[in-house]
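Changelog note: in this version the structure field was regenerated for every chain. One regenerated record is shown below for reference.
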Amino acid sequence: MRDTYRETALDNTASIPRILFSVLSLLAAIGVTAALTLQISDQWVYEEFVAHDFFAYFSFQQGFGLVIVLVASGIYGLQSARDTLALSAARAAFVMYSIVVGSTYFVLTETGIADPRPVGPMLWPMIVMNFVIPVYLGLEWLLNSQRAALPWWTFFTSLSYPAVWFVVTLIRGDLTGWYPFELLNPSSEEASSNSFLYMGATAALFFLVSLSVMVVNRIHVVLRRSSKAS
């Protein structure tokens, strides 16, 4: 097996910067949890909460998954010097999901395809989920080099989840008539040639962000090995 794919023995002592990154991960988990909880409670209060529709949105699915990854990163980071391969791969995937979701949200709201207004009176949950968290995750991935080297197959596995979500969403929509966004509904007035443009652009964004995440990880690995060699 190539060295790039092998997890090396780790010193279990967490450095001060790693402890700081871990605490930030736990704080981010609290922020995401609060934002998701408020969105659910607002929809509940305004009698607009439909569980099977709410949890069908990719943004909310990745939000709940992100909480688990952030908590795991925070707890493990306080006890070790470097993330394992599994945790690094999970973190990489959710960095990509969050950045794409945040970018797509602003594109859809600016073009009028999605309603930017929250159900309740407070806007901060949208800001947290679609701006603060993506920016934090991107910067943290750039600055925190203490992760296992990711094999290239993780690039494809991270893309498999949004691909499966897309296929399942189309099948569910065809059976129930409900789609998270009307541009996905082939029989709606909003569906047109522009729909293929948006979907193609989103797929390209997933690909490019995932590739960027992988490249940053490889740069970290090269720099870490160079520093050890010197």
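Spot check on this record: Confidence is low (pLDDT under 50) at residues 1-10. The chain has one domain: 12-229.
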